[in-house]
Amino acid sequence: MRLSRSFATGMALAIFMGATGCGTANNQTGALVSKSMTSSKKTSTSGWMLHKPEHPGIPATVRLNSLERSNSWYTIDMASNEIGYRWGFLNGHFAMERTEDGGQNWNSVALPMTLTLAQMTPGNGQLINPNVQILDETTVYMFAVSGHQLIALHSADGGSHFSTKRLPLATNGLRIESVNLLGDTDGWILLRGSGQDAATHLLYHLTNAATKATSQHVTAGATDAGLPASAQAVVRFTNPKDGWLLATATDGKLRLYATADGGATWRMRNLAAPSELDGYKAARVYTPVILEQEGTFVVRYTRTGAQSPVKTVVFRSRDRGVHFTGQIVNELNDAMADYTGQPVFFATPDYGWSISDARLVMTRDSGTSWKTIHAPGLETTLHSYPRVLALDFVSDLSGFVLLQSQDYRKTQLLHTDDEGSSWSVVQS
């Protein structure tokens, strides 16, 4: 998940306007959210809906193997309100399309090579292989693991032309776990082994438009990345120097590896769960969103026993990860924002959206409080299309959601321009 280009632009604009004494203006596509505004005041929750009907089957679970074989577009990434991309496996071949009118019409993106489902499936990890990164309206990266190679495709003109680089990998049978690009200069990719090499993790620092990969180690002296053998992990940097790698393992501990020198050295510490979760173990951590001093991420906790439900915790830091607070958010226990199971789409460390119990929920304060948005059109559609493949807001008002039917055969793309209160079908 990328930090929305529109949001980032809005933050810079809001800071400038605040310095010059100007107010923030709204337009038809919504005001661009300022991180400084959202973090400096407490959001009022008066009138916010705290209870909603329970629909345990919505959102429905997504199985990656079934999704890949559904012969449909399985995700969407909008760079702006008009320009975006979608991709998936069609007739067993990976395909991509681009829109310039908010998803009403799509044009094929010609890829420089053929990637088949049979070829790519062995590289599926937490993310589907290949992995696509949309940095802005024209900058597209795609990473594919094939054998002993990491294939990196890069386009700077919206997919009209691609460059291709094949980077050697230390071993065969690797899977894509996490990808984070800051732009053309720096990025990171985390890979994990499979089969007898399942304990192996490899972390690479990508530079020069992903044409060079340098191995990094979170534990000094490790032959691989240095993570626990059973670790599930995600990586996220806020600039070329400062980054976090978060990991869970079978011991149930949540580990934070932090670097201030671009990944040359790392410091590790354990993050404690809220005291109410005594006996629970961290089962999965999701990619954080970091901006300047602030960072927010979500963790699922479980414990042994049929009567022990999953618990969801939102962690946040306001001081570059020096201190964290963790809050249990029951509204997110069955929530989903994309096909990977990410519980929330955070556009900034403060603003986030999700779908839970067949309704849209949102936060403006890093998950401290949640608003349930009653949207009859979306709720009705979710009963026919209960799988949430992608939830993507490009401003505080304007967002898209890609839904899929229970049988994986049909998808529907919806758009809102009023914070989610009403939705219109863009394409089905």
Automatic annotation (TrEMBL):
Gene3D superfamilies: YVTN repeat-like/Quinoprotein amine dehydrogenase
SUPFAM superfamilies with a match to the protein in the record: Oligoxyloglucan reducing end-specific cellobiohydrolase
UniProt xrefs under InterPro entries: WD40/YVTN_repeat-like_dom_sf (IPR015943)
Signal peptide: 1-21
UniProt entry keywords in alphabetical sequence: Signal
Segments passing through the bilayer: none
Domain of life: Bacteria
Protein name according to UniProt: Photosynthesis system II assembly factor Ycf48/Hcf136-like domain-containing protein
